[in-house]
């Protein structure tokens, strides 16, 4: 077999379908977010980033940077090992305590990323419960799906955000056998929000554990940034809450918050936790500073929601179609992969606006989009420039205006 030719053909297929991914070579500028330098062989230019998951700009917040500098100077660069072997720094301990408090849980456990926390926790919990069945929302993130697959447990997929279908999928299972219901709060591509209370009602009626992924909600919702569950007063009803430090908190890492027993169990049995080097102390310190700041300050959340509302209003006025959802993610629907890439390229080349095209397999074919994420640091002028650019390109490529 000609291996190189085989892999080249697969890549050529991505090019033909218009969904080959090209990385934007960006140099973020602390203090200037959402501005960045776009590096290119022909030189560089300033652009405005409209698709970052640094939802609140905390990656440049002075409190976060100061905490990281202090930890770097006092502890050095790396953690030095796994958590079990010389790699537990005091910053890790403090951060886990802060995250447990954020979600009103007994304990929390840090991972190197949100992807790893989902994969390791879901696979470990389910695999160690004999005859466990997993109930998974059909739009769950790839990391959750991987964790579920690695558990090797029977899995039933329930219709997206549908408590009635979840109840049907649970109804014929052994009431005494273990069950785990896994879903998200804010879904990253459509921006819709789960009916957490109703899903908990169904799970509790069938004696099932609940696992809530809050990665696109922590820091952004609730009086202290604890996510949708905190906002709705439901944290106590979730068995496990999973989150990330890489989005609204602006750093890197993932975590789960749960009872002390469950966190200890994951710590003791999850290979994705046991056998990997822990987060650098400076990263943990920066995340700790970010969580503490957002627990005390609601200003960033208020400004963020104001920017989201302003962008939606201007898009409506310009007739640019976007999904109407109650969250902070604004998907502008194109529904064609080639056209989506063309529009993204035009935005960056002609207007200095960076919005990454989102194509299959991240979203289903025919639902290709520009996923726009406003931040508190986008000005009225930024919003007007984006909307004007979209309206002009919309007219050029012949896309219909929204009614």
Written account of the structure:
A hairpin with a 2-residue loop joins strand 2 and strand 3. Strands 4-10-9-8-7-5-6 form a 7-stranded mixed beta sheet, sandwiched between helices. The protein is globular, with a radius of gyration of 22 Å. It has 14 helices and 14 strands. The protein starts with a helix and ends in a 6-residue tail after the last helix. Helices cover 43% and strands 16% of the residues. By secondary structure, the protein is of the alpha/beta class.
Q: What spatial order of strands do you see in the largest sheet?
A: 4-10-9-8-7-5-6
Mean pLDDT: 96
List the uncertain runs. Answer: none
Structural class: alpha/beta
The count of DSSP E runs of length 2 or more, i.e. the number of strands, is 14
Q: Major β-sheet, in short?
A: 7 strands, mixed
How many individual helices? 14
Portion of residues in beta strands equals: 15-25%
Q: Approximately how much helix is present in the residues?
A: 40-55%
**SSE run:** HEEEHHEHEHEHEHEHEEHHHHEHEEEH
The Rg value, from CA coordinates, equals 22 Å
- How far apart the termini lie comes to 54 Å
Oligomer: single chain
Query: Rough shape?
Result: globular
